[in-house]
Amino acid sequence: MTQPHRQATETPVMPLLRVDKVNKHFGHNHVLRDVSLDVYCGQVQCVIGPSGSGKSTLLRCINWLEVPDGGYVYLDGQPVGYRWKGDALHEMKPAQLAVQRRRMGMVFQGFHLFPHKQVIENVTEGPIVVNGTDRDQAREEAMALLAKVGLAEKAEAYPEQLSGGQQQRVAIARSLAMKPDLMLFDEPTSALDPELVGDVLDVMRDLATDGMTMVVVTHEMAFAREVADQVVFMDEGCCVESGTPEELFGSPAEQRTRSFLARVQ
Amino acid sequence: MTVISRRTAGDSLVFRSAEGVRPVARRHPWWWIGGAVLVLLIASFIHLLVTNENMRWSVVASYLFDTEILSGLLTTIELTVLAMVIGLVLGVVIAIMRLSANPLFRTVSWLWLWFFRGVPPLVQLVFWFNLATLIPVLSIGIPFGPTFASWDTNTVITSFSAAILGLALTESAYAAEMIRAGIQAVSKGQTEAGLVVGMSQSQVLRRIVLPQALRIVIPPIGNDLISMLKFTSLVSVLATPDLLYSAQMIYSRNYQTIPLLLVATIWYLVLCTLLTLGQQQLERRLKAKRTTGTAVPTTKRLRFVPMGRA
Ligand SMILES: Nc1ncnc2c1ncn2[C@@H]1O[C@H](COP(=O)(O)OP(=O)(O)OP(=O)(O)O)[C@@H](O)[C@H]1O
Ligand SMILES: [Mg+2]
Question: A24 CB under 6 A from ligand 1?
């Protein structure tokens, strides 16, 4: 087991997120095959791999937007989507699943901001509706988050008035407003024009420095190399190889990893 | 040899500058001829309207604000609004049932649509009005179990409530189909974005999906509202004193059929115009709201800056 190198903790530590032999089929298409992954508190894991290798599906299985059909995901040692009742494991009620989802923020490739709400309302929506936070307090916290992603002056704009990069930063602020323990990013920059990628990556880099635990699916190899504590290479639904950026980029053990890296770099 | 240009050596190759020469605008003789014919037709129509003795404009004028007509007008407005509101609320419920994962809900809503779109509203009106013949007593209770309260059907089903039932149920079927299309037009990513901040399915539906879906269906619903206004005239068969029935009552006494129908027509057109304007206004407002975000007065914006509070 790899130790997080950014956090000095006594051994053995419990991973914040454990993905244990997760499988997923879409019809006859076996999309995830026994994928396992441990993410420790404060760690940044980057997931790389060719298109169609199951990276998005993996993230969606972690927060149960897709239900895995084999294996378990654990958050803080508790299975996601199930509840222990004595020694029996019961499927959760939607309300309990929602409580688990609150702890995992997610940022999508396509932003998915709420187009009928202002930027600030996008950010306050979760705290107000889900946590029942007082409106004024939610707005105050939202303004602080928008300032953090550099968009305080856009608080009253509507999403369609923003550039892609700005929308994605709002989406990050919207996730952070729920004070998650873990952030999942699904190719947050691949829908963006090249000159807008930097701003979003800067925000993510700041988050990593602040100690946020993150799982980042990305095609930005330079970012993975610089920010990740652990890089995972996926191909055809399998977790082929994982290691520190130095190990994975410097001396990949598997042929498949080498040929993928040769293609993208 | 292939021909790549049809320009031949015989073409004039002299360059002639057009600078300083004002071009002559193209003439459109057919616009003028067609326009003249239309104007003539319209003028003769208006001439007919104004001079035809049978129109009796003086009678029209004297009945336009008659109390009986005005109370009929009020009934028509009440019927339209009530039937529309009930129809829309039911429509949202049926649309959600249509999209439910539960096959029983889907089947029931499908049958509802099939029935209420298939039976003409006029047949329904008469049917609901005669409900007492079929079910003499209406009661609330547990099916096949005890009843908590019951009423004589004839006291519940007046001609007014029968009209509302028939119109609202028909509307619910049409509204359900529009709203379902609206809900499906909202991308799945919106639902997922709501779910990942920890909202429940019903919160996502109420706060994220429905507001967007309803915005999409405002134009067709505006259309429906206008047809509803006209469908209310069906209630005259149940002797509900709406606008048309009030006009009919008056002309059955004084035989001024055409003038009173004109009175009703004028009022229907007035209401229809108001609704159309209202719909345009609403659509413009919704569009404006989305595009003026940055043009908000500074005073309003300052209120939300946390530093401003300290
Ligand atoms: N909802 C779905 N229904 C059916 N098949 C799906 C669905 N979602 C994904 N798949 C299939 O699962 C496989 C993995 O898809 P996934 O989106 O996880 O890949 P990815 O690694 O994220 O690719 P990319 O880099 O292009 O985003 C693909 O073959 C895809 O066609
Ligand atoms: Mg993907």
Answer: no
Mutual angle of helices B243-254 and B257-291, in 10-degree steps: 160
Model confidence, pTM? 0.80
From first CA to last CA, the distance across chain A in angstroms is 28
For B145-154, what is each residue's pLDDT tens digit?
Answer: 788 888 887 7
Q: Is B309 on the interface with A (CB under 8 A)?
A: yes
Type and span of the H or E element at A89: strand A88-91
Q: Are B193 and A114 an interchain contact pair (Cβ–Cβ within 8 Å)?
A: yes
Residue type, A73: V
Residue written as token pair 């396509």: A110
Distance of residue B289 Cα from the nearest chain A Cα, in angstroms:
9
Pairwise CA distance, residues B70 & B74, whole Å: 6
Tell me the ipTM for this assembly: 0.91
Is the distance from CB of A26 to CB of A237 less than 8 angstroms? no
Q: If you ran DSSP here, which 8-state letter would residue A235 be given?
A: E
Q: How far is CA A82 from CA A74, A79, A178, B176, B286, in A?
A: 10, 6, 22, 36, 43
Which residues face A79 on adjacent strands? A74
CA of A62 to the centre of ligand 2 (A): 14
Q: Which domains does chain B have, with CATH numbers?
A: 57-289 (1.10.3720.10)
Give per-residue pLDDT as tens, B106-153. Answer: 999 999 999 999 999 999 999 998 887 777 788 888 888 788 888 887
